[in-house]
Write the structure tokens for this entry.
Amino acid sequence: MSNISIKTPEDIAGMRIAGRLGAEVLDYITPFVKPGVTTGELDRLCHEYMLNVQGTIPAPLNYCPPGYTPYPKAICTSVNDVICHGIPGDKVLKNGDVVNLDITVITKDGYHGDNSRMFFIGEPSILAKRLAEVTYECMWLGIAKVKPGAHLGDIGHVIQQHAEKAGYSVVREFCGHGIGTVFHEEPQVLHYGKPGTLEELKAGMIFTIEPMINAGRREIRAMPDGWTIKTKDRSLSAQWEHMILVTETGFEVLTTSAGTPPPPAIVAQLLAQADSVPA
Ligand code: MF3
Ligand code: CO
Ligand code: CO
């Protein structure tokens, strides 16, 4: 039995707004992501933009799932070997670093807009650039599978296949998730798996796809701050995240703004043939 909610037209309208606002925080912060800035300053700027310009609030602040301590900041800043949930602080970003900024806003109507992008500080290494590109392709290959009648396992499978073909590994402990007026709800969207398995997708479902891909081994290491997750082997890790609506004919990317990067070439070809709404 499925507990996955089917959103009402009113919910969908609210989630389109939340998604756009979440993406616009990433647009806003982009010019500040430069050598010399601290992750704490990026947090402060995003938080201020949400409160004072958008009239949204950051979902992470004081977020406290069972077994966790309250998350202390407005955004997540995951640098280099940090896989996810990096806590902003005094860390100064330097040339060659790679950072994921993960933003979730809550609108005045209570809807969540959750998305993340990778940023290079100055000139990235060839490895960092390729890892971020392959991870972006993984996310989009997963998105391109979304339509009524497809299964969650189809998404996980295509992501795992693409990551492993490149010699990378898929993090298992964290996954995409249903989202709406609740930050994390059913279903879990695994980034590995087998075609035709798990829940069948239906029009009106909304969930994130947010693969975490490691350059080395998939194992993780939890830091004593209770939140930060790193690669056990200290290899680089990358992540991208969009929020997706299942439509009658395919998908709609909800976390879309003026600065949203276009789909990668390998997926643009697929989409040109498919009956879907590209970003
Ligand atoms: N935005 C993250 C996600 O994609 C969740 C962050 S929870 C936090 O699901 F508390 F760490 F912010
Ligand atoms: Co997120
Ligand atoms: Co998410």
